[in-house]
Amino acid sequence: AAHEVWFNSEFHRQSFFSNMQSFLHPFPDSKLLINRIDDVYSKTRVVPLGIDFNEINRVPVGRGSVPRILWNNRWEHDKNPEAFFRALMNLKDRGHAFELVVCGESYSISPRIFEEARKDLSSHIVHWGFVESRNQYFELLKTCHVLPVTNNQEFFGLSVMEAIAAGVHPILPNRLSYPELYPEIPFFYESDSELESELEGLISSGQFQSFSNSVRSYDWSEVGETYKRLISEIVD
Fold first, then answer.
1. Three-state DSSP class for 25?
2. pTM (predicted TM-score)
3. CA distance 12 to 34
4. Cα torsion for 170, 175, 177, 182, to the nearest 10°?
5. Rounded to an integer, what distance in angstroms lies between the CA atom of residue 185 and that of residue 172?
6. Residue 190 in 3-state DSSP?
7. How far is CA 56 from the centre of its chain?
8. What is the pLDDT of residues 111-163, one digit of tens each?
9. pLDDT digits (tens, 9 = 90+) for 93-125
10. Beta strands in 82-233 (DSSP E)
11. Cα separation of 194 and 33, whole Å?
């Protein structure tokens, strides 16, 4: 029924349509619905989300000398916290010095690895839990050096983009929407062991990089103008 259908990344769009036929097959009128997939696809666009760079830039940078590692996702299995915390536990066991910020929304039942990590990594934790204030959240981001991303489900990844905009060095997997959204970032890992190796190298060397300029095109000052133009075209 829609005039246009928008997806927030090409990965999002392809994931949706590659699964449409198998999803619709059990429906009583599946043949009619499946025959319309191409018509729906022809009405699609990729239109990204946006972030407010001004809001992030107003907060001063507060990074110290000890490497600080960030988690800023929901506390859910699809964000693969097991791979994230196992890597940190291994680095702790090998004697590496680091600090840990864990924020993000938790629900009534969170993966058990969070409580395990809270005990095992207690001496490294400087923040644990949901942040009520956006300003406090951005302040935390700007104290962190590195963001290891372990997600198994992500169609865009707003929290990842916020961290990159705040100057946190991302370690991204070679999957989901990340290679599409961040083509300027030179390294994407293939396995949990490669993630751990890259993280260990960074916290040992301290050679963290800011890729904040690579996400400038997602500032609302630009994305908002795209939304206004496209919506005006549809209305006209």
1. coil
2. 0.94
3. 19
4. 40
5. 9
6. coil
7. 16
8. 999 999 999 999 999 999 999 899 999 999 999 999 999 999 999 999 999 99
9. 999 999 999 999 887 789 999 999 999 999 999
10. 99-103, 125-128, 146-148, 169-173, 188-189
11. 43
